[in-house]
Write a structure and sequence with these properties.
The protein is an alpha/beta fold. The protein is 50% helix and 8% strand. The protein contains 14 helices and 5 strands. It has a 5-stranded parallel sheet with strand order 2-3-4-1-5, sandwiched between helices. It is elongated. The structure holds zinc ion. The site of zinc ion (ZN) has 9 residues, from helix 3.
Length: 333
């Protein structure tokens, strides 16, 4: 029955989904919910999925949106007028007051299904600017029947206390590592070791880890760091060459993280603190035979080059890498 276009409920979100359903069935659903937790856990998917269920005319008898009723069909066609999604107009931008004003205007219209719900999902609610948050506050202060706001935010501290106090908080925890690895290996066909590496890079957030698995930039990073460490380990200078890797601002972060790992190893930090955990063996070896002050100096250089790059100065990847390696190699004792 379920249409595959309806947002999935990830295993680590099931208990939250069911608990929200129980609240609705007990007539105790808050008129404003705030889903919080780190990025990459699927908070927005949970919000969308719960909204779809709430809006489905058969929700009293189904645990999933039926996918068949008129409302579900309109939702799947993305044309249901009582399912409203507000988000920043572009990545990294604020949600503006005009967006909230338009929303408030919509709220004055009658519901498409007279006794049905209207759900407003505010994605990245923590990016609302001050005026937008104030405008929204008015709507939260005067709840309308069968209208539910679902705010989604990674960074709670960015939301005004007045908004926080009007929402029921649903805190989504980062799932257990073993559960996430099991899910990742199944979803992405990655072996356990690589899944655990991806998860570590994504700070334990399974969806971020799964996106990393497909990202070209992750693969570029692996080949760049491999090439970098191999040369450092060999201890002899050879011109840098990492096929398929072009200079982007991320490269400076990758190399910085690698140098920081060497410094961490030097100070005896645990593997779990390293960015490149899979290379822990090589990093530890290198940390034993390098002067840490020189590693620090190169780290400064990398950060300086990043600033130059961001300011528009043309730089050449091979020359940069050669330059850093030439400074690091004599640091080997
Ligand atoms: Zn339905």
């Amino acid at each position: 029955m379920m249409n595959h276009d309806i947002a999935p409920v990830y295993p680590w979100l099931q208990t939250h989904y069911q608990s929200l359903q129980r609240q609705q069935r007990a007539d105790q659903l808050a008129h404003a919910l705030l889903l919080t937790g780190q990025a990459g856990l699927g908070k927005t998917q949970l919000a969308l999925r719960f909204a779809d269920w709430l809006l489905c005319v058969n929700h009293a008898t189904c645990d999933q949106p039926c996918g068949q009723c008129q409302v579900c069909r309109l939702i799947l066609a993305d044309t249901y007028p009582d399912r409203l999604l507000i988000e920043p107009e572009a990545a990294g931008k604020a949600i503006k007051v005009d967006q909230i004003r338009q929303l408030l205007q919509r709220l004055t219209l009658s519901h498409h299904v007279p006794d049905g719900y209207r759900v407003i999902i505010i994605r990245q609610a923590d990016s609302m600017n001050h005026a937008a948050a104030n405008a929204l506050l008015k709507a939260l202060e005067e709840p309308q029947a069968n209208t539910v706001f679902i705010l989604v935010a990674d960074q709670l501290w960015r939301l005004p206390a007045t908004i926080l106090s009007r929402c029921q908080r649903v805190a989504i925890a980062t799932p257990e590592t073993t559960d996430s690895i099991a899910w990742l290996t199944q979803q992405t066909d990655q072996p356990i070791e690589r899944a655990s590496q991806l998860l570590a890079h994504a700070h334990g957030a399974p969806l971020s880890a799964s996106q990393l698995a497909d990202s070209e930039s992750y693969q570029a990073r692996e080949s760049l760091i491999d090439a970098f460490l191999t040369r450092l380990q060999a201890g002899q200078f050879t011109t840098f060459d990492a096929p398929g890797v072009t200079l982007t601002h991320e490269i400076f972060d990758w190399i910085s993280a690698c140098l920081l790992d060497i410094i961490h190893c030097y100070h005896g930090s645990a593997d779990s603190l390293l960015t490149y955990q899979a290379q822990a063996g090589i990093l530890r070896q290198l940390s034993q035979c390098m002067r840490v002050s020189q590693v620090f100096d190169v780290l400064q250089e990398v950060l300086r080059s990043k600033r130059q790059y961001l300011s528009g100065i043309q730089l050449n990847l091979s020359l940069l890498m050669d330059h850093w390696l030439l400074q690091l190699l004599p640091a080997k004792r």
